[in-house]
Amino acid sequence: MTDNLVHIVGVSGGRECIPPATSEIIDRAELLIGGARLLKMFPEINAEKLAIGNNLSEVITTIKHALTHRRVVVLASGDPNCYGIARNLTEALGTEQVKIIPGVSSFQQAFAAVKLPWDDAVLSSVHARPIEDIIGLVRRASKVALLTDKDHTPSNVARALIEAGIERQVYICQDLGTSDQRVYSGSLEETAKTEFSPLNVMILVSGPLPEKSSMPLIGQVDESFSQRTPDKGLITKMEVRAVSLAKLALREDSVVWDIGAGSGSVSIEAARLARRGHIFAVERSPESLEGLKANVEKFGLGNVSVIAGSAPGALAGLPDPDAVFIGGSGGSMADVLAMVAGKLRRGGRIVINLATLENLAEASRSLQTLGFDTDTLLVNIARSRAIGNLTRLEPLNPVFIVTATRQGEDK
To answer: Which residues cross the membrane (predicted)?
Structure first.
């Protein structure tokens, strides 16, 4: 008889580190699943063994078939809930059929090895993920720990950070919990020239970053941004920017297209909100591009890519977006929206800023034709202005904010 539960057991260090109650669960397994390294730790267990590699769908199917009549144990390194297999199995099997027994995570072991607290650290991974995705994260955080893999090695990470102009103290904690455990310490330049064990945790440490850490996520004053013609107001004003970003409803991993990015004010604040996502700032004006690039560099954002060119042509080849902001279309609104409609992910949003009734009418017609529901907001902002000892209100140009979602999708 079985309890119809898959036991996901975290293993840290050698067998001697496994608590007796957990060892008993592993010993009673009839189907033992795990990476080849972990399975080799239990040669005497009389159970069918299935190694996990690039066969996760096969593993899940096998578990589903075995659950009703066999005791299934899945071995995982450290804490299965920390960049581990528990996420995949709970999503596939349901939480009611899973019991998770955590071990000590590799992050915990790494910080213990270097004798640093980790309650203020940012944890991430470049395992099967682009290294570029963590550059912005490293810029913003004074302490980052990364899981690496055979393709995204510590030396490759170090080279990418050097190219981005970042300096950090580096610790590489290798073969944690084994007799071969060792800790490397050095600069990014030294790390870029060194080879490491494939089983490692990379820790990047800098001094505190008071200037950047004190920046708000949104609400930067307009004067913070380099602008081509500040006297003409060619920037999405702070108040309009805040409403537009709220309408975009970004998640921390959103992919965003900012079309007609101008100075990049929307891209920059979107990047701070979608810190694990990516923003593609599309701009055609050479003069605006100069300021846009300067602003991205000034705010130290590694998750913003500047795309030079006119939409819709410049949008070809970009990853499908979760959200699209259109601050300018260069007179090609209908064509731009048609392109966006074909690429927008399910549940995505389009937010458009418009200054004229004619452009509002064109955008609304195009969106309706493409099968979108729209919500239109007119934003009238007036700012206080001193006149001698008195104060008056000085209005800004009114802006229409159109938010579009596909018909039938949740708003």
So the answer is: none
Q: At what angle do helices 357-369 and 333-343 cross, to 10 degrees?
A: 40
Is residue 230's pLDDT more than 60? no
Model pTM score: 0.59
Task: Tell me: cis bond preceding 20? Omega within 30 of 0 counts.
Answer: no
- The answer to whether residue 48 is domain-embedded is yes
CATH code, 31: 3.40.1010.10
What is the rounded distance in angstroms from the CA atom of residue 151 to the CA atom of residue 317? 24
Query: Within this chain, do residues 169 and 201 fall inside the same structural domain, yes or no?
Result: yes
Token reading at 317: 């080849």
Phi, psi dihedrals of residue 250, rounded to the nearest 5°:
-75, 150
Task: Look at the block and give the residue holding tokens 């591009």.
Answer: 289
Residue written as token pair 């259109």: 326
Is the domain of 221 the same as that of 348? yes
Using DSSP, state whether 362 is helix, strand or coil.
helix
Q: The tokens of 56 are what?
A: 């996760």
pLDDT at 1 over 70: no
Q: Do residues 157 and 177 lie in contact, with contact meaning Cβ atoms separated by under 8 Å?
A: no
Which burial class, exposed, middle or buried, applies to 380 when counting CB atoms under 10 A from its CB (0-12, 13-18, 19+)?
Answer: exposed
* Geometric angle at alpha carbon 88, from 82 and 92, rounded to 5°: 150
Q: What is the mean pLDDT of the chain?
A: 89
Q: What pLDDT, on a 0 to 100 scale, did the predictor assign at position 384?
A: 95
Residues 316 and 266 in one domain: yes
Residue 272 and residue 137: Cα distance in Å, rounded? 10
Q: How far is the C-alpha of 196 from the C-alpha of 150, rounded, in Å? A: 10
